[in-house]
Amino acid sequence: MLVIDKFSRKPIYEQIVEGIERDIVMGILREREQLPSIRELSALLGVNPNTIQKAFQELDRNGIIISGQGRGCFVADHAAQRVREKLSARISEIESIAAELARAGIEEEKLLDAVRRAYHGKNNDERKEIL
Amino acid sequence: MLVIDKFSRKPIYEQIVEGIERDIVMGILREREQLPSIRELSALLGVNPNTIQKAFQELDRNGIIISGQGRGCFVADHAAQRVREKLSARISEIESIAAELARAGIEEEKLLDAVRRAYHGKNNDERKEIL
Amino acid sequence: MLVIDKFSRKPIYEQIVEGIERDIVMGILREREQLPSIRELSALLGVNPNTIQKAFQELDRNGIIISGQGRGCFVADHAAQRVREKLSARISEIESIAAELARAGIEEEKLLDAVRRAYHGKNNDERKEIL
Amino acid sequence: MLVIDKFSRKPIYEQIVEGIERDIVMGILREREQLPSIRELSALLGVNPNTIQKAFQELDRNGIIISGQGRGCFVADHAAQRVREKLSARISEIESIAAELARAGIEEEKLLDAVRRAYHGKNNDERKEIL
DNA sequence: GTGGTCTAGACCACA
DNA sequence: GTGGTCTAGACCACT
Questions:
Q1: Which residue in C7, C11, C12 is closest to A66 by CB distance?
Q2: CB < 7 Å to strand E — which of 17-56 in chain B?
Q3: Residue C76: what pLDDT?
Q4: Is the pLDDT of residue C69 over 90?
Q5: pLDDT digits over A83-120, tens only?
Q6: Which of A13, C113, D69, D87 makes the best surface tag, with the fewest CB within 10 Å?
Q7: Distance to chain B for D48, nearest Cα, Å
Q8: What is the count of structural domains for chain B?
Q9: Are residues D95 and D40 in the same domain?
């Protein structure tokens, strides 16, 4: 859980943000639960504390965690809900890629299949039967 | 044709690459046709020549244009085809975003609708994200 | 009386200070009355004793409580009066915020309304900013 | 214009954010105008580039400036408007202070006067006749 | 112990 | 040249 790839083009702090959001949305991290401290995570991931701090700051800013001096960081109330909203915004990303492909003459069915594969493919995790 | 937005998040050279690819795939630029020179484009778009240069390099590297030294740049044979192949690769991008949203519990129908909107909706303006 | 919110942005010791001041000014705590001991309060609020200690120090420093060693803490004479003076100082805080908003072109009436709402409105819950 | 106080309790980066916002709302910085580069400001203010960067990042995040690699930072379209909205949010700050003072028995008229002073006092800058 | 800010200095991608 | 990320290491306020 929460592995980061130091050589990815995606900034480390973003990987951390997304990793934590993923843990929240999947229920691995529960609301009001305390997160590992910045220094702890820093040691754990082999990443500079400032980098973790930046990730936490971003999460805090978005109301996904609450952090306070001397107290530590906690998953905020309704965090999962907020993450879901944030993810919903990515739908427009799909729409804009699709529009680009549409213009280039790629068949619509191919894209629809890609989406269906993502939802029904073998790669779906065990959460399906939970919901 | 080929407007660039200096205030977009997207790197300028990338906007140029995509703009030219779009023109090729839509038949506005035809195979073996000569492209404007770097200096011309630079003046036309109000963009640093180095930036145009970088875009052309990228297109050359992908076999979409041929840029011999001194003789100017030409649309490569089968360029449209190659662009289409390149774009097809973006389907997997959609699939991976879809997988992420699936994991977060976003409904499949929302994504399918986004794709359909892109194909059948009016006003498919790719520059939406530019702000 | 005196609930603290561990998830608030406001430091816990500050919440305690303000809570006690509020109780004094509202007559819930009377002058010369003894306050609960640090250990008691600590247990009661689920808060680190050092934090209570810090809050009491602050109150002592401002002459609002008297904390002799070992004998416990007592509400000081004229405590309510001092709290009121301290609060009056916050009027200048309002003035400086108002000046800032004035400079930005916010309408005066909006601020006057905010004040009137605070005095005449229902449901004046200070803990609004807590999230 | 844009002086910072290194010894203030308010973080330097916040002072910079507010200073720039103030300049925007007062029309000193106009929309689409380029800001000084991070390194320039850094030298100018005697502050570490990272600190400036943090301030700019915050402004960017709020859509008040737009910054892009290699391009520099620019005041965003509708920046002044956004700043004004952000400031409007501070009215609730006034309301919550007012509520606190109301509870303590401070007279309403004192607060109203404070607001009026801010709007009609001698401290008002020259922008009054401009609007 | 915790998180938050700041500095110094490096490296990268973009124009 | 520009902004963006990361590291190392310091100091502060809060628990």
A1: C7
A2: 47-48, 50-51, 54
A3: 95
A4: no
A5: 999 999 899 889 989 988 988 888 999 999 999 999 98
A6: D69
A7: 25
A8: 2
A9: no
Determine the protein residue whose CA lies at the shortest distance from the C1' of F2: D70
Q: Which nucleotides of F are covered by protein (CB under 7 A)?
A: 1-10, 13-15
The total number of residues written for chain D in this structure: 131
Residues with Cβ within 8 Å of C7's Cβ and at least 6 positions away in sequence, in order, are A32, A66, A68, A74, A76, A77, C130, C131
Same domain, D71 and D22: yes
Same domain, D42 and D95: no
Residue B100 in domain: yes
Question: Could you give the CA distance from residue C76 to residue B81 in angstroms, rounded to a whole number?
Answer: 86
Q: Of all nucleotides in the shown strands, which has a C1' nearest the CA of D68?
A: F3
Distance from CA of C41 to the nearest CA of D (A): 23
Cα–Cα distance list, B73 to B39, B61, B65, B85, D64 (Å): 12, 13, 7, 21, 40
Identify the three-state secondary structure at position B66. Answer: strand
Pair C16, C72 in one domain: yes
CATH number of the domain at D29, please. Answer: 1.10.10.10
Query: Within a domain: residue A2?
Result: no
pTM confidence score = 0.88
CB contact under 8 A, D93 and C97: yes
Whether residue B70 sits in one domain with residue B118: no
Q: How far apart are CA A48 and CA C77, in angstroms?
A: 52
C123–chain D Cβ distance below 8 A for any pair: no
Range of the domain at D16: 12-77
Q: B98 and B44: one domain?
A: no
Strand E contact nucleotides, protein CB < 7 Å:
1-10, 13-15
Helix (H) / strand (E) element for A107: namely none
Instruction: Compare CB distances from C7 to A69, A70, A74 and report the shortest one's residue.
Output: A74
The verdict on residue D100 lying in a domain is yes
* D93/C25 Cβ within 8 A: no
Asked if residue D45 lies in contact with residue D100, where contact means CB atoms within 8 angstroms, the answer is no
| Same domain, residue pair D68 and D102 | no
Task: Decide if C69 touches D, using CB distance below 8 A.
Answer: no
Residue pair D82/C72 in contact (Cβ under 8 Å)? The answer is no
pLDDT digits (tens, 9 = 90+) for D68-114: 999 999 999 999 999 999 999 899 889 989 988 998 888 999 999 99
Last residue of a domain, one of D52, D77, D102: D77
Is position A47 within any domain?
Answer: yes
Q: State the smallest CA–CA distance between residue D27 and chain C in angstroms.
A: 10
- Alpha carbon distances (Å) from A33 to A75, A79, D25: 5, 11, 41
Contact B12 D71 (CB under 8 A): yes
Model confidence over C73-103: pLDDT tens digits? 999 999 999 999 899 889 988 998 999 899 8
- The answer to whether A68 contacts C7, with C-beta atoms less than 8 Å apart, is yes
Q: What is the DSSP letter of C76?
A: P
- Considering the domain architecture, whether residues C20 and C71 belong to the same structural domain is answered as yes
The alpha carbon of residue A89 is apart from the nearest alpha carbon of chain C, in Å, by 23
